[in-house]
Write a structure and sequence with these properties.
By secondary structure, this protein is of the alpha+beta class. The protein has one domain. The chain has helices spanning 17-36, 55-58, 63-79, 111-119, 151-154, 186-195, and strands spanning 42-46, 52-54, 86-95, 100-109, 139-141, 162-163, 166-169, 172-175, 180-181, 203-206, 208-211, 214-217. The strands form 4 sheets. Strands 1, 2, 3, 4, 5 and 10 form a 6-stranded antiparallel sheet that branches. Helix 3 crosses helix 4 (111-119). The longest helix has 20 residues, at 17-36. It is globular. It starts with 16 loop residues before the first helix and ends in a 12-residue tail after the last strand.
Length: 229
Amino acid sequence: MEESGFGTRDHETLASKVFMGRNRFRVGGALWQLFEEELPIRTFTVRPRNWLYSVAEFADVDPRDLINRFRSTLNRAGGGKAEGFLIGAIHGEFDEGSALFDLHVHGAADREMLGVVDRLRHLPNYRCRRDEGNERPRVVIRRKALSNLPYPLTYIFQSSWPKRWRGEVEGANRRGTVRHRIPEPYHTIQLLWLDQWSLNDISLLMGAYVGKDGLILSDSKSYSNRRSR
């Protein structure tokens, strides 16, 4: 691979904002094409409770395992038999106060697969525990028609991870809305982790696959992320 710079190609790594930005708009454009074909696409965010990792734990996290476990959970919630499609990708944030990496999934789906995502909120790993002062939902579905396109669709594959403030306000756990750069050495740790993996490793496709002309809808939900690289 040639060196990144004027007149040369960028490094093909998830740690490169240029590389991720290019793929972000490529995938967003493919989803937009489906949206323009009048599919009722909506977006979602899912934050599994056990996807919080210390710095020491984070180095050994395999995103393919996370994606495959999440796929299995969706299948148990009816995704394996549901019609429709879903696309998602792993994203992360860093909480400097607790020094934890918070991984989650941003995605888009049509109506029937959104129903599958919605059922996750009743499972222990995705349930919001309001009795513990945590009012932040683990499953968020944007049910209104998408606007300001293609931004909601390109948001699925983000080119950077932020640091966000987290803390307790009036007895409830809150999360800041302002994104900040992850401080060192945690930022370097995060980039080194991303550099190990491919776009396929952090992505989830159900009921669709990538063809030469973009996203192609299918009936298959059986694909699993490969263990080999």
